[in-house]
Amino acid sequence: MINRGGRASKLTYVYLGLLICFIVLGIVFIGGTIYGLFSHAIAVHQAQSYTTQKTTQASETGQTFTGIGRLRVSTADPKPGMVILFVSFKYNPDDKPFSEELALRVKDFRGIIVNYIGSLSAADLQKSGEEKIKGELLRRFNDILRLGHIEILYFSDFMIVE
């Protein structure tokens, strides 16, 4: 590549410049690929960690199911009294099948409450106490559920009017 006069030709400098450019581009592409692979793996891990954390928080705190609403049920007394109650419970809204089952069972839940409360007198209800009534309703609710279960029932309102 040296011409007769001992000087490097202009073509040699062009080839040398191109070679250096290709080497620099190769290093940039290889370095970028390695960086992309590692940063993508880290981003995927962080996203999975965030999703797991969010799901855990949702299942720990849950959401309150209030679809049953406020009910007024007559007691089994000769001169019927009235029980006013509002039943709610916690559930995990991320569990879509169970959430759908709960929505479909609202009418059944109301029927269970009306049948159970309506079969007792006001005196029996007062003697039983709120906790025993909750326990029995909880047992009956869970008996009809197939895709999950309810842990605890809450009564926002519970009044026995004679």
Instruction: Give unreliable regions as ranges.
Output: 54-59
Structural class: alpha+beta
The Cα radius of gyration reads 36 Å
| Level-1 CATH class name of the largest domain | Alpha Beta
- Helix content range of the residues, please? 55-70%
Question: What number is the mean pLDDT?
Answer: 83
How widely separated are the two ends?
Answer: 113 Å
List the domain count as a whole number: 2
CATH fold call of the largest domain: Tetrahydropterin Synthase, Chain A
Number of β-strand runs: 4
The biggest beta sheet is recorded as: 4 strands, antiparallel
Annotated CATH homologous superfamily of the largest domain? Band 7 domain
Order of helices and strands: HEEEHHHHE
Shape: rod-shaped
SS summary, helix count:
5
* Residue share in β-strands: 15-25%
CATH architecture assignment of the largest domain: 2-Layer Sandwich
Layout of strands and helices, then pairs:
Layout: H1 10-61, E1 63-65, E2 70-74, E3 82-91, H2 96-104, H3 106-118, H4 122-128, H5 130-144, E4 153-161
Antiparallel strand pairs: 1-3, 2-3, 3-4
Q: Please, could you describe this protein's structure?
A:
This protein is of the alpha+beta class and 162 residues long. The chain has two domains: 1-61; 63-161, 2-Layer Sandwich (Tetrahydropterin Synthase, Chain A), CATH 3.30.479. It is 59% helix and 17% strand. It has helices at 10-61, 96-104, 106-118, 122-128, 130-144, and strands spanning 63-65, 70-74, 82-91, 153-161. Strands 1, 2, 3 and 4 form a four-stranded antiparallel beta sheet that branches. The chain starts with 9 loop residues before the first helix and ends with a strand. 11% of the residues are buried. Mean pLDDT is 83; it is low at 54-59.
